[in-house]
Specification:
Length: about 375
């Protein structure tokens, strides 16, 4: 009996080691203290561009923006998990992709989507993938053996998927829906609810945060491998192991016990930078945005609520926070509702000589507040220095 117990322990240990074969204690960067002196957000940016999305009966988005993707100088916007809209580089409405229904080319729910380099479009509908050409014409559908939460096209030849209540957290499939690889056993911490799981990280990787922890999964497009990494080297930041432990012991009711636990909330990436919001999980204190230069591995900017938004004037230095639901290689994209900008311009008239203020004034200040409330959100495309 004793030998059997020892053998079981050894087998369990070996299995555990095999499941963690890609894990390491390597980290990407280190956090730096938040500066005490307020900074102007524009001083951290290389460029900024404003793109008002055309408002028509067919293109009305309202307040339910989901995922925003930029590719081939076009913008794709999903909203209410019901529709996918396409806009050109100036924000003019082009078309809707598919529609709600049960027929060919229709979907019961727009769970996620992605766009191929040639402009063809892929929509995920529960356990089905629907393919469209660049003009939105239906091509064909593929059934899946599992239910994804998010998808990501890899070099037009493979698809990454995050499992939704599945045994594994990540799946790699071919264009026919066949599973090539599945990695990392699921737990509560890996069941994220972000519009985007696979965030752009440099030229040839994606990064996915595990829960609210310091730990992330990288996927290398060239090696076709998943690996585990820490986002920062601060030991006070919640780890995925600790988060899973808290979930098991306290079942989401541990805020009073761990009110001062630091976590990482959301992040967005491009081919040059990554930014993420960190701070106390159950408190608004000490939250800040860390901006990481991917090439150097260093934090270049720290943005706190003390800093001045002289880009959108919306009384929130975290205006860029909406970029966590966007996907673009050459920039970050966030969205701002026009009435927020309209009110910000009224309040911050002392910035009237600021070039960003002047651009926004031309776009919005000749309209009434009632008019801008009904308009589509405006996209803000920006690049860090």
């Amino acid at each position: 009996m004793k030998r059997t117990l020892i053998l079981l322990i050894l087998i369990t240990t070996i299995i555990g080691c095999n499941e963690r074969k890609n894990l390491s204690d390597e980290h990407i960067t280190c956090l730096k203290p938040v500066p005490d002196k307020p900074q102007q957000i524009s001083g951290m940016l290389k460029s900024v561009r404003f793109i008002p999305l055309e408002t028509t009966d067919q293109s009305l988005i309202g307040r339910m923006t989901g995922k925003i993707k930029k590719i081939n100088n076009k913008y794709y916007v999903s909203h209410s998990r019901k529709e996918l809209l396409e806009f050109d580089e100036n924000g003019l409405f082009l078309r809707k992709i598919g529609r709600i229904g049960t027929g060919p080319g229709e979907y019961s729910e727009l769970c996620d989507y992605d766009v191929f380099e040639n402009g063809n479009i892929l929509i995920e509908d529960a356990m089905k993938l629907i393919f469209y050409d660049r003009d939105g014409k239906y091509l064909h559908s593929v059934m899946l053996d599992f239910m994804p939460y998010n998808i990501k096209i890899v070099k037009d030849e493979r698809i990454l998927a995050s499992g939704s209540g599945e045994e594994y957290a990540f799946y790699e499939i071919d264009l026919s829906g066949k599973v090539i690889k599945k990695e990392f056993k699921s737990n509560k911490a890996t069941r994220w609810g972000s519009p985007i799981a696979f965030i752009t990280y440099g030229q040839d990787k994606t990064i996915t945060k595990i829960g609210r922890s310091n730990d992330c999964i990288l996927y290398d497009f060239n090696d076709k491998n998943f690996s585990y990494t820490r986002l920062v080297c601060d030991n006070d930041i919640l780890s995925s192991v600790k988060e899973e432990e808290l979930n098991q012991v306290y079942n989401d009711k541990y805020e009073d016990v761990y009110r001062n636990v630091n976590g990482i909330f959301t992040m967005a990436g491009s081919d040059s930078h990554l930014f993420f919001l960190s701070g106390y999980i159950f408190s608004d204190n000490k939250k800040s945005i860390q901006v990481l230069n991917i090439e150097t591995g260093n934090i270049e900017h720290v943005i706190s609520n003390k800093d001045i938004d002289d880009v959108t004037f919306t009384d929130n230095p975290f205006f860029m926070f909406g970029a966590w639901g966007t996907d673009a290689k050459d920039c970050f994209i966030t969205y701002i509702y026009p009435d927020k900008i309209w009110n910000g311009l009224k309040k911050h008239s002392d910035f009237e000589e600021n070039p960003n203020y002047k651009k926004l004034k031309e776009l919005f200040m000749d309209k009434s507040e009632d008019e801008v409330i009904d308009e589509n959100p405006m996209l803000v495309e920006f690049v860090f220095k």
